[in-house]
Amino acid sequence: MFKGTRKNNKRLTMKTSTLLENALANFNCTAKVLEKDYGKELIDVLRLPKEKSEIRISPLLKDGKLRVIKSFIVKHSNSIGPCKGGIRMSPHVTLDDVTALSMEMTWKCALIGVPFGGGKSGIVCDPGTLAPIDKEVVIRSFARNAHSHIHPLVYVPAPDMGTNEKDMGYIKDAISYSMGMATTQGCYVTGKPVILGGIPGRREATGRGVAISVQEALKMLGMEPKDARVIVQGAGNVGSVAAVELARMGCRIVGISDISVAVYNGKGIDMNGLSDHLKKNGSLSGFKNGRMISGSDLLEAPCDVLVPAASGGQITRANAGKIKARIIAEGANGPTTHEADSILAGKKILVIPDILCNAGGVFVSYLEYTQETQQEQMTGAEVSDRLSKRMKEKFNNVHCCSLERNISMRDAAMFIAVKAVCDANVARGFQP
Ligand code: NAD
Questions:
Q1: Atom 21 in ligand 1: which residue has the minimum CA distance?
Q2: DSSP assignment of 370-410
Q3: Residue 178 lies in a domain
Q4: Nearest Cα to 373, choosing from 205, 231, 241, 184?
Q5: Where are the beta strands (DSSP E) in 78-140?
Q6: Do the domain assignments include residue 409?
Q7: pTM score, two decimals?
Q8: What is the SS3 assignment for 426?
Q9: Which H helix or E strand runs over 60?
Q10: How many domains does the chain have?
Q11: C-alpha angle 179/72/338, rounded to 5°?
């Protein structure tokens, strides 16, 4: 933690989402340090997104009724390259959330070293209540209405909470169809099915990156994977893959949850049973290999590694003091509030910050982007090898910076990332 910056960071008075409040609080800590070199004006430019759009879509669903749905696209920064960031589909997503997530994408891309800026989309709709055909209609309607924002050199979306590989395939189809072509010229969306120009390993990339980060953190603390008990919150794309990968590395998965159920089993969850259950049912509901506890109790249950891989704002001032893990690996975006961060630091819990820990997804999206742009093909083994090398290299860079500057891993990651974006702005110059 930068000395004197976090505790002096006054509570933000404006009404914001927890995600935005945290994103700004994290940024402000780093901003105070970088302001001296880059000037307050440039730092102020980076505090706000470049562009926010609210797009109303009105698809006709299979019940024969028009549904009016709000959606958002926020482009935070394109200094390093086209804006990159997933599409979140949730009844609770707000413009402030999307703003925060787009800002985090700017830092994540800069930190992991891919030539993208930060963007994000939100569709205010509950995917869980939509029949598959209705979800496809909503996604296609979003793609058609947001078409002017989506372009390989402007904004390239990907999956996030509530959207998946299939949806990205529909977006590619909707865009190529509207152009009257068999395919698109260049990469308009990443995280697509492999048969449509996707890349092997993209779906697993974020969860794998989380597992590699945990492996590096265990090494740093002198712990063996076989001695590490792991709890994962969220059994979706990121959480389920992280759990499987960590188990494969030798860790014992003692707890897992989703929105419906939380299971704790101190002896270790049967991972084959878990994978089969998720494949068959699509959720944890009905999975009985352990003791059922509440989702909030699971976060405080005994473990060495806690992987929040669901929504933001899960580790707060109220529960941070009760967390028993030695390592928190942020698979989710913004799972830890700013106040909780200080409590965790006091307890000497190592937090692997989201912009590092879950950056494997955007790194492999970059491989997909280059593959499609250059009309090449990469094998799963090449992707996996490059992902592993990049995650380890960046983990090490952040760790070294945190030691050199005597700051937390989050502040070190933010320092490297925000500095890179400042450098890009200076290099481009400030004339129109
Ligand atoms: P997903 O929709 O596939 O899965 C989300 C999971 O979280 C589901 O199992 C859901 O039931 C569970 N969940 C939601 N609220 C919960 C709660 N309160 N308690 C317990 N479980 C809960 O989403 P995902 O793609 O796995 O994304 C998860 C997180 O990772 C999000 O914060 C997302 O922004 C972040 N992320 C995703 C990617 C990616 O490539 N998909 C990349 C970077 C970051």
A1: 258
A2: HHHHTT----HHHHHHHHHHHHHHHHHHHHHHHHHHT--HH
A3: yes
A4: 184
A5: 83-84, 87-90, 117-124
A6: no
A7: 0.94
A8: helix
A9: none
A10: 2
A11: 140
Q: Tokens 């959330």 — which residue? A: 97
Q: What is the CATH number of the domain that holds 70?
A: 3.40.50.10860
Q: What is the mean pLDDT of each run of 10 residues along the chain (432 residues)?
A: 44 59 96 96 96 98 97 98 98 97 98 98 96 98 97 97 96 96 94 96 96 98 98 96 98 97 97 96 93 97 98 96 98 96 97 98 98 94 98 98 98 98 96 80
Q: How far away, in angstroms, is 332 Cα from ligand 1 center?
A: 6
Query: CB neighbours of 16 closer than 8 A, spacing ≥ 6?
Result: 24, 96
| Whether residue 56 sits in one domain with residue 135 | yes
| Among 32, 166, 95, 99, residue whose Cα is nearest residue 333 | 99
Ligand 1: list residues with CB < 6 Å. 159-162, 206, 233-239, 257-259, 295, 309-311, 331-333, 358, 361
Query: Of all protein residues, whose CA lies closest to atom 28 belonging to ligand 1?
Result: 310
Let me know whether 230 and 116 are in one domain: no
- Quote the radius of gyration of the chain (alpha carbons, Å): 21
DSSP strands (E only) in 219-272: 229-233, 252-257, 262-264
105 in the same domain as 183:
yes
- Give 216-223 contacts, CB < 8 A, sequence gap 24+: 216/391, 216/392, 216/395, 216/396, 216/399, 217/305, 217/327, 217/329, 217/350, 217/352, 217/395, 218/305, 218/327, 220/350, 220/399, 221/326, 221/327, 221/350, 223/304, 223/326
208 lies in which domain range? 203-357
CA atoms within 13 A on the CB side of 96: 13
Quote the strand ranges of 280-319, DSSP E: 291-293, 305-308
Yes or no: say if 79 and 103 are a contact pair by the CB < 8 Å rule: no
Amino acid, single-letter form, for residue 316: T
Q: Quote the ligand 1 centre to 308 CA distance (angstroms).
A: 9
Main-chain phi, psi angles of 85, to 5 degrees: 170, 150
| Rounded Cα–Cα distance for residues 255 and 290 (Å) | 8
